[in-house]
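=== Structural record ===
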Amino acid sequence: MTRILGLTAVIVALALAAYGMVAAVVGVRRRNGALIHSAQMAAYANFALMSLANLAMIYALVTHDFSISYVAQVGSRATPVFFTIISLWGSLEGSILFWGWILAGYTASVVFFTRGKLGSLGTYALSVMMAVGVFFYMLLIGPANPFHAVFPVPLDGPGPNTLLQNHPLMAIHPPFLYLGYVGMTVPFAFAMGALVSGKLDDTWLRTTRRWTMFAWICLSLAIIFGMWWSYDVLGWGGYWAWDPVENASFMPWLTATAFLHSVMVQERRGMLRVWNVTLIVVTFLLTVLGTFLTRSGILSSVHAFTEGTIGLWFLAFIAVVLLASLVMLAGRSTELGSRGNLDRLVSRETAFLLNNLFLAAFCFTVLLGTLFPLVAALRGAKVSVGAPFFNSMSVPLMVGLLFLLGVGPALPWRGLAEGSARRQFLPPTLAALAVAALAVAIRVPSVWAILAFSFAAFAAVANVQEFVAGVSGRMTAHGESPPLALARLVMANRRRYGGYIAHFGVIAVALGITASSTYRSEREVTLKPGATVALSGYTVRLDQVTAQEQPQRVVVTAEMSLVDAEGRSIYALRPRQNFFKSAEQPVNTPGVRSSFRNDLYINLLAFERDGSSATLHVIVQPLVAWIWFGGLIVAFGAAFGTIPLPRRARRKVYA
C-alpha cells in the first residue's frame, strides 16, 4: 500500500507538471486566464503530491518495509531512527525524490508570492520550472524509481552508507545543499521567461533577487557544513580535499557569487545585461552538472552514488538546456545590449568586473581539474588531478579576490573624485604593509600566505572604513550618538551593509584557511595507557582503550586527556573507530578540542585488541574555528541584507 501510494503520487505529479508546463505557455499565448490559473493550481497540487510521496518513503523507512526497493537498499532494523529518517537523501533514488519535493516547493512558493504581479514573465517562468520538474519526475518513475517492488522480501537491509550515519551534520548538510542547488532554478526560470516574453528590463532581476540570495545562502552554508563534516568524520585532519563532489558544490557558488555582484552593476549602470543572463544559465547548469557528478558514479568520490545509467539522462538534459539557452540568448542579444558605459577605469564598476573575471577564472580552473580525468579516460589515459594542481592554480586567484574584497567598497560608482584616492586607500594600505612587515619578521614560510594575511588586513580596514564614514556622516548631519547612528545607518542601507558584513565573514574564512594550512603541526605516535605525547604546547595522555557494542556498530574508543603541567586532566578527548556491521572498513571519529585560537585534533589509527596500546595521529592547527564562524557570518550578512524587517521593527529603528 505504501509503495503504491508513493509511486502513484509521483506519476500524477509528473502528469500535472507536464500539464502545467504546456497550459502556462498556451494560456499566455492565447491570453486565457483560466488556463494560466489551472497551471498555477497544478503547481500547488504538484507540491502536495511530492510531499505525500516523500512522507510515504519516510514511513516505509521507519516501519522497515523491505518490500520497497529503496528501503531494502538503505534500511536496517539496527539503524537508529534519526539516521533512518535522514537516509531519505542517503542514496541515489531517495535523494532524487527529496530533490523533486524541494523543486515542487520552490515552484509552489514562486506561484504564491508572484501570482497576478508579473504577467507573461511570471507565467513563462512557471512553465520553465514545471519543465525542470518534468525531467526529475521522469527520473523517479524511470531509472531512479525508489518505489520498485522487491520479491522475495528480505528480512533486513544493509543500512545507509556508514559515512552518512556517523555524524548528525548529515541531517543538515544535504538539505541545505539541495535548497541551494534547486533554488538556482528560480532565477534561471525567470531569466528564460524574460528572454521568451521579451521583458528584458530589470524586472526579472528584482523579482528573483531574494530567491537567488536565499539559494546562495543555503549553498554557502552547505559548503561550510560539508567542510565541517569532512573535518569531523573522515579523520584526516582536513576540511577540503578538492574532491569532485566538493568541487561540484563550489563551482555554482562561484558563478552565483559573480552574478550577485554583477547584478548591482546592471541595476546601477545598465551594464552587463548579457553577462548576467549567461551567469545565471551557467549557474543552473553547474547545479545539474553537480547532480550528474554525484549520482552518475562517473568520477570517484566519497560522496558519489554509482548505481544505474542515470548519468546519460543528466547529460541529455544539460545538452538540451544549454542549446535552448544559447538559442534564446543569441536571439535577444541585440535587445540585451548594454545601456551604460564605463566612465572611469578606477571605479566600483571596474572592481566588480575584475571580481567577475577572477570568479569566472576560478570556476573554470576547478571545472578543468574536475573533468580532466574524465576527458583523459575517454582517450584511454588514466590521469589523476589532485590537490597540488588545484592549490597552485587557485591560491593566486583567492588572494586576488581577497584584495578586490577591499578595493570594491573603497571605490565609488563612476570613479573617484579628484584627490580622494589617498584618503580612501591610505589606511587599508598602511594596514596591509604593517601586516606584511610583521609576517616577514616572524618568518611566515609562504609568500602566498604573507599576501593573504596582508590583503585580509587591507580588506578588513577598507570595509570598516565604510561603517566609520557612514556613522560619522549621520552623527554630523543628525547629531546622533554612535550606536544610534550605526543602527540607523545599517537599517537604512541593509543591502549594502549586509554585504559588508558578509565580507567580514569571507575574510575570517580566508584567515582560517591560510593559518591552518600554513602552521599545521602533526605527529603520529603509539602510546600505552598512562603515556603522554606533547605537540605545540599541548600534552595529551592515553588513559585507556575501551570497546562498546551498539545495535548497528562496535565502537572502539581511545580515552584521552589533555593535561596541564602538573599532569591534571583539563579536557577529555575520545577519538574512536566505528565498526559497522555492513562495512568492511571502520569509520573514524576524531577527538577535537576546538577554540578560536587553534584546534587539537586526535585520530585513532590502530589499537591492540587487549587495549595495551593505541596508535594516534595528533594534529594542532590554528584558526580552524574561524572557517565555521566566518561561514555563519557570511550567511548572516547576506540574510540581513535580504530579509525585510517587520513594519513594527522598522518604525522602532527609525523613530
